[in-house]
Amino acid sequence: MTGGKTASEEEILDAIKIEILEEKRAYLCKYLDPKSYFPSLRSASLIDSDDEELILAEPTRKRRCEKLLDILMLRGPLCYEGLIRAIQYVRTQTFLVETLNKELEKRKNNLNTLLKGPVPSQEIDLAVDTSILPKPTPRRVGQTVPVEDSYETSLSSTSTILKFSNDSTV
Fold first, then answer.
1. How confident is the model at residue 99 (pLDDT cuts 50, 70, 90)?
2. How many structural domains compose the chain?
3. Residue 16 lies in a domain
4. 57 inside domain
5. Separation of alpha carbons 67 and 112, rounded Å
6. Which Gene3D superfamilies match (predicted)?
7. Residue 146's pLDDT is what?
8. Mean pLDDT of 24-37
9. With contact defined as beta carbons under 8 Å apart, do 101 and 84 qualify?
10. Are the beta carbons of 107 and 20 closer than 8 angstroms?
């Protein structure tokens, strides 16, 4: 995006995917077991046998995961999809896919809003000027009030205002 060039939407999405992997790094390293995904990642050419050895040389699972993510992010924009496919193929930690994809969808929506503007709201503003509304006439308890004929004709022509009390003493 430097030198007067603008990035395409695809380039921006690729950068977002790598950013998501970086931001979710701690979360991924908490749960991800890198050894489970070696065959899938190797078949996708995202890692090779040397990378596998480097990863396995790390002393803890967390450090192995960090090394795997470092290597994947060096492979470019396909690393996100490759990791997602590997997790889906093994089917043991699909909650990680859900977390990553939710974040991606949220960022895609934000990107679309930035590029195309906000989606018009389907809500209708029903602002009412209360100063022009008729004010209710105060009535006393027991007073009869005429009922408009334009409503139900089966109603009696008058109605009585009743007062109900929450007093339980009878």
1. very high
2. 1
3. yes
4. yes
5. 33
6. Death Domain, Fas
7. 61
8. 94
9. yes
10. yes
Distance, CA of 41 to CA of 88 (rounded, Å): 12
In a domain, residue 86? The reply is yes
C-alpha to C-alpha distances, 56 to 14, 36, 68, 126, 134, nearest whole angstrom: 28, 12, 9, 64, 79
Which pLDDT belongs to residue 120?
Answer: 61
Rg (CA), the chain: 33
Instruction: Say what the pLDDT of residue 150 is.
Output: 45
CB 63 within 8 A of CB 87: no
Residue by residue, DSSP assigns the chain as: --TT----HHHHHHHHHHHHHHHTHHHHHHH--GGGGHHHHHHTTS--HHHHHHHHTSSSHHHHHHHHHHHHHHT-THHHHHHHHHHHHH-S-HHHHHHHHHHHHHHHHHHHHHHH-PPPP--------GGGSPPPPP--TT-EEEPPTTS-TTS-SEEE----------
Q: Please give the residue range of the domain that contains residue 104.
A: 9-116
The answer, yes or no, to whether residue 153 has pLDDT greater than 50, is no
Please report, for the domain that includes residue 37, its CATH number. Answer: 1.10.533.10
Please, is 34 exposed, middle or buried when counting C-beta atoms within 10 Å of its C-beta (0-12, 13-18, 19+)?
buried
